[in-house]
Amino acid sequence: MATIKPYRVLLYYMYTTIENPEEFAEQHLEFCNSLELKGRILVATEGINGTCSGTVEQTEKYMEVMNNDPRFAGIVFKIDEADEHAFKKMHVRPRPELVTLRLEDDINPKEMTGKYLEPTEFYEAMKQENTVIIDARNDYEFDLGHFKGAIKPDIESFRELPDWIRENKETLEGKKILTYCTGGIRCEKFSGWLVREGHEDVSQLHGGIVTYGKDPEVQGELWDGQCYVFDERIAVPVNQKEHVIVGKDHFTGEPCERYVNCANPECNKKILCSEESEAKHLRACSHECRVHPRNRYIVQHELTEEQVAATLEKIEAGK
């Protein structure tokens, strides 16, 4: 019998009215700290979007209190077992919106959103003809893992997605559109926006990739790679039947699922690279970042000017 791990990671969101997000955030942080939870929770007048970790007992108490609050009645928690905390600290922050789309005319998912498809329905829909699968996440999330045949919009962040859709409107006309994201929150708004833009057949993966990977029937099938998550774990498996690595080392192009942040603090770009590539390229995505005066890899490893110069020479020589 499998051993139950001592910690849990909760992922959840809910579009609901929160009258005073600033006051709520302050009180909610106190509550989370009293339970000794760690995580990141965003609060807006339109609702709550959070992920936090704690012991089984701590997370049970948190879910109990949330479920007893009329504002969050029916909230769904996606639960992962863990060996330890997935975060270093606890943050609860008020925000203008839960996901940053910055639409001139905002979408209320409670009034307009795409059709919800459960994992088995989404699985079948992906195999149908005349269907377009759109990944509603950031580029680095897609690079680590995605559904087979999914389109990677040429964007760096979620808020650029509407412009990309408008630029590619002809490609999508008359198609059945399927969209997905990590836990479902981004698709609630994005699919609603697609409907408002005039796309007639729009569906979203209910509960997101995380729910799809846990479904006992589909077992994550048709997913390649891993799912990027915004905590210390970085990545979680999805496909229970086979593991296909789609990530590629930024420097060598070899299969890779190890993310690091560029050592230039002003860049901080997420790059896939092996430990060998990290050392060879000073954990920097470009020459400019390698020679940046505050390169964190150089500082961390206390490299001398001579050592850095020798490393740069090797790179230039293609060694």
UniProtKB/TrEMBL annotation:
Gene: trhO
InterPro entries: Rhodanese-like_dom (IPR001763), Rhodanese-like_dom_sf (IPR036873), Rhodanese_C (IPR022111), TrhO (IPR020936), TRHO_N (IPR040503)
Single biological process term from Gene Ontology: tRNA modification
Catalytic activity: uridine(34) in tRNA + AH2 + O2 = 5-hydroxyuridine(34) in tRNA + A + H2O
Enzyme Commission number, as recorded: 1.14.-.-
Top-rank lineage group of the source organism: Bacteria
Keyword terms: Oxidoreductase, tRNA processing
Domain Rhodanese: 127-221
Name of the protein in its database record: tRNA uridine(34) hydroxylase
GO molecular function per UniProt: oxidoreductase activity, acting on paired donors, with incorporation or reduction of molecular oxygen
Lineage of origin: Bacteria, Bacillati, Bacillota, Bacilli, Bacillales
Family: Belongs to the TrhO family.
Record HAMAP family: TrhO
Function: Catalyzes oxygen-dependent 5-hydroxyuridine (ho5U) modification at position 34 in tRNAs.
A Pfam entry, by short name: UPF0176_N
Enzyme class name: oxidoreductase
CDD domains named in the record: RHOD_YceA (cd01518)
